[in-house]
Specification:
With 184 residues, this protein is α/β, with parallel strands linked by helices. 36% of the residues lie in helices and 19% in strands. The chain contains five helices and six strands; from the N terminus they run βαβαβαβββαα. It has a six-stranded mixed β-sheet with strand order 1-5-6-4-2-3. β2, α2 and β3 form a beta-alpha-beta unit. α1 crosses α5 and α2 packs across α5. The longest helix is centred in the C-terminal third of the chain and has 22 residues. The N and C termini lie far apart (30 Å). The model has no long low-confidence stretch (mean pLDDT 88).
């Protein structure tokens, strides 16, 4: 099941949170949020910005991998699944990444109840990660995807990251209200 919300919609945060809740189902363990991307291109920084926002949010209850200070890039993706499954065996993994798409899709935040394949917009062949995926479509797809990611507006990426991090933080409070989990 896929859900999509435009980042300018004032109800996007609530919609993202409800879609994640539906996709994750019943879970007692704190969520693990894997924020994929790099700060070397503005358009690819959606994940690390969202991860940094989550890390700095005192209300977030869960675990974050991938921030501006310590990004998880395509190079680490092949190792991260094993690490996360061993480190957090009872937690669901929410994978967050930037994506490219059609002109009409730019600005959409898509939540899916399946893993994501990072780097597919740049024709990279990497393994799937996560139990649930959150993709922010930051630019239109072209044969020069990396160049397009460098020309993406920071405000678009930042606003999308804020909506995602706020939704995940609210979800973590609802999910973990009976657990005392500290932000790690």
């Amino acid at each position: 099941m896929d859900y999509a919300f435009h980042f300018y919609n004032s109800m996007a945060e609530t919609g993202i949170m409800m879609a994640l809740e539906r996709c994750l189902g019943e879970t007692q363990a704190p969520p693990v949020v894997l924020c994929i991307g790099s700060d070397l291109a503005v358009g690819d920084s959606l994940g690390p910005i969202a991860g940094t926002m989550l890390k700095r949010n005192p209300e977030f209850r869960g675990f974050v991998y991938g921030t501006l200070n310590a990004p998880v890039t395509a190079k680490e993706v092949k190792y991260i699944n094993n690490f996360l499954r061993k480190t957090h065996p009872f937690s669901k993994i929410i994978a967050v990444d930037a994506a490219v798409g059609e002109d009409s899709d730019v600005g959409l935040i898509k939540v899916s109840d399946c893993a994501l394949r990072p780097g597919s917009g740049a024709n990279k062949r990497l393994g799937k990660v996560g139990d649930v995926s959150v993709l922010g479509i930051v630019a239109r797809k072209s044969s020069f995807s990396y160049s397009v990611l460098n020309l993406t507006r920071l405000n678009v990426v930042y606003t999308m990251a804020q909506a995602i991090s706020d939704a995940v933080s609210t979800l973590s409070l609802r999910t973990c209200d009976s657990h005392k989990v500290v932000n790690k």
